[in-house]
Amino acid sequence: MAEARSKEALVVCSDRNMNAGITIWDLETGEDLCHIPTCASPLHGLVCLKNQFLLASQVQRHRSFGGGAIFTWSLNKPQVLHRSYPLECIGPICSTKDGLFLVGGAPSGNAYIWEISSGKLLKIWRAHGKSLSCFSISGDDSLLISGADDGVVCVWTMISVLDISDSEQCVNLPSFYTWSQHEAPITALLSTSIGLNSFMISSSVDGVCKVWDLTSGRLLQTHSYICGVTAIALDPDEQVLFSGCDDGSIFINQLDIGFEDNPPIILGDHSMVLSGHKGSITALSFSINGSWLISASEDCTVCIWDVRNWQIIRKFDHKKGRITNLVVVPQISLLAEYARRSLPRLHVSVLDKAPNHKDKSDVVSTLHTRRIPEDHIQSSGFRSYTSMVQQILDLEQGRTSEAIQMKVETSVENRLWAMSMTKHMSAMNNHLRSRFLDLMQYQLPAHPDLTIEKRKKQKSSDKEDLRETPA
């Protein structure tokens, strides 16, 4: 147990066929630790929930479910825990840092958000005009960022996304920011915080990475490369940008984020290039301890780079197909004993296929519309059809103890749900208020320490000095 506590494991998957599954390697020795069968996940289609569960969207049709699927596994068990079948085929997925909500994107441009613990589909909205390609969520879980094949990046407040007062499907949800400066599909999104400021980095097939200020919405930097950028990552200190390209190279650039009026265009530094792959880079990540950079490629290999000298210290061959996703987890999370001891333990449910904002009590009102066979009426202990109808009406109007108990349970459940949502939205509101104050402080004049009275006195003093000055 003590040895596994300090070790790390690399989780990878492919999109070639369902038999490829998910492979888990020992990051230090390359040993096969576990294989999870039956998984074929697209780019950005794999997430790990607080080192307890894996969720992966599937690219292939399943049985009669033409919309694809999302599978859930416990990290310490290779058997599928849940199979969920959304309305549409889901590509990229992303979860909030607290593990409460899951966001998924469809080729139609629709975005979905579920509550993970209950499986409730909270909202479907039209996010983009073309297929969604990637998501990112800010470090404080207050902003959702989406990218698509139309080259557009949208920023949404989680408060508006989680507002389920409008239950209409595919609503036009207004975005907080919309940026359309890229000229080709978006390939990756990263959100980061440096000091008190929050930033977002977007990459595209157009060979450009852009750095955005999430507080003001301004473009701060543009990094330009000679080939399309397919994956990006930040070092643990969030000061260095790593850009993987479609020719297999990985460029290294210092961010040096400032607040210049004219955003600079920074050319990729060709002297700082890592070359170890023969195919397009599909994923980049850092080890948990920050000592290794991990890169995956369409050439079916994974390279482990030592950050001290940028040499490849280990190379994995994934013969089951190109690697589309990689995640690093502590090895201890693969042990059943850790799963029993880990607190708090997340609860994961089957994801709903369609949104349902009705209370459970609403189901009772539909009972009288259902036609019950006559033989069932006779065997159910009802004296007559009239008495049966009367019992149904009593149930609907809350006259029986069963109906009262049902309403009480529904009321308690709704109250717990409302308390949880209120707490979560209150936290996000505090984060947004803090960002607004940061923005106001950023827009103050050059001498913010002078109050209005001080400025008036300063102007009067300046006029007196002018009068006393000889002509």
TrEMBL record:
GO BP term (any one): rRNA processing
Listed SUPFAM superfamilies: WD40 repeat-like (SSF50978)
InterPro entries from the UniProt entry: WD40/YVTN_repeat-like_dom_sf, WD40_PAC1, WD40_repeat_CS, WD40_repeat_dom_sf, WD40_rpt, WDR18/Ipi3/RID3
Keywords: Repeat, WD repeat
Gene Ontology CC: one annotated term: rixosome complex
Family matches, as Pfam families: WD40
PROSITE patterns in UniProt: WD_REPEATS_1, WD_REPEATS_2, WD_REPEATS_REGION
WD repeats: 125-158, 179-222, 274-315
Compositionally biased spans, kind Basic and acidic residues: 459-471
Keyword Repeat carried by entry: yes
Spans annotated as Disordered: 450-471
Name used for this protein in its record: Protein ROOT INITIATION DEFECTIVE 3-like
Species: Aristolochia fimbriata
